[in-house]
Design goal:
This protein is α/β, with parallel strands linked by helices and 338 residues long. The protein is built from twelve helices and 13 strands. Helix 4 packs across helix 8 and helix 8 crosses helix 9. It starts with a helix and ends with a helix.
Length: 338
């Protein structure tokens, strides 16, 4: 395996190269993103790189600029060894959200296979937030695995019951329970990783992401902060999204804590996360039923009967409405047809 292949390079990206690269140019993968520069890894090693003006000004939005996990083309810039990013390859997957305070898409990472969605058991699992993370992953063509950490703070019976609660929001999503400091459950996590697999760790601050990353790596890659005792909230130990290569060849991206997430057009991922609602919706009177006010809605009838929990239905409706509003804001034609 070449050094580039060990970074996740494959046929999908190779097919995008239709002519020889410019002299001195080479393919690289973004391994860390800072405000004004990026660190990239090439077959020759790591480089400090900056986006060139043509690429920056030609991008339709920030979402088209390089993010951690992207494959890019870099060209030499100065004798000091820095480089210029001149091209971003088409992505095969991504995690993105609506950037807080704006109407723009924010790409959290690109070209990942697995998202380890971390939730600490030092509090009650936030099922509604987990649904949003799972919808974000499904929308971006990323396999999600929920990792429940800090199992030492619960009795074995409580861990079983909490796992069942989480499993109830998405039957197809693996739900694992781990206590990283004691290595309990880490082998279960590793079954979803391995050489050439790109994975990302996401979740709120204080959930145990950095601890999980360190123990998967077998060394301290990230500093770890204590959770505040009075409200069970953590401090942002991780301040930048960074891609690490683990001893087994896994390409692991650690991310800063994300307490709230509004998926970027979650609609394509809703059927996978809310599969119980999807199955019932096939029986609704109208094929395009929104499950709001239409007569003959089987989904609303199931909510009234208690078959579907009302808070789960409300979470689905909220995500569905957010996705619709996002599409309308991007398409004035759709907005006029409301």
């Amino acid at each position: 395996m070449s050094a580039l292949q060990s970074l996740g390079w494959g046929a999908f990206f190779q097919s995008q190269i239709t002519e020889p690269l410019p002299a001195g140019a080479e393919v690289a993968r973004v391994i860390e993103e800072q405000k004004r520069y990026h660190f990239v890894a090439t077959e020759r090693g790591s480089l400090l790189a900056r986006i060139n003006g043509k690429l920056r000004h030609g991008a339709g939005s920030r979402a088209h600029l390089p993010s951690v996990g992207d494959f890019v083309i870099v060209e030499p810039r100065h004798d000091d060894g820095t480089a210029t990013i001149t091209y971003v390859f088409e992505r095969r997957s991504k995690l993105s959200r609506k950037e807080p305070g704006t109407e723009d898409e924010q790409v959290l990472c690109a070209n990942v296979d697995v998202a380890l969605v971390v939730q600490g058991l030092d509090g009650q699992p936030n099922l509604r937030r987990l649904e949003r993370f799972l919808a974000t992953a499904a929308r971006g063509n990323v396999k999600a695995v929920v990792v429940l950490t800090k199992t030492d703070l619960r009795t074995p019976q409580e861990v079983v019951e909490l796992k069942q609660q989480v499993q109830g929001i998405s039957a197809a999503t693996p739900v694992l329970a781990v206590n990283a400091p004691n290595a309990l459950g880490l082998d279960d996590v590793r079954t979803h990783l391995g050489a050439g697999v790109s994975a990302v760790v996401v979740g709120p601050s204080g959930a145990g992401k950095s601890t999980l990353v360190n123990h998967l790596a077998g060394e301290d890659l990230r500093a770890v902060s204590q959770v505040r005792q009075w409200d069970n909230k953590g401090r942002h130990t991780t301040t930048a999204r960074t891609l690490f290569t683990l001893a087994d060849g896994t390409l692991l991206i650690d991310t800063p804590g994300i307490r709230e997430i509004e998926p970027w057009d979650a609609a394509p991922g809703l059927d996978e996360v809310f599969d119980d609602i999807k199955r019932l919706s096939d029986e609704c009177r109208f094929r395009d039923c929104t499950h709001q006010k239409e007569p003959g809605c089987v989904v609303r009838a199931a909510v009234d009967a208690g078959t579907i929990p009302r808070d789960r239905y409300e979470a689905f409706s909220k995500l569905q409405n957010e996705a619709r509003l996002q599409r309308e804001k991007q398409s004035p034609w759709l907005k006029q047809r409301r």
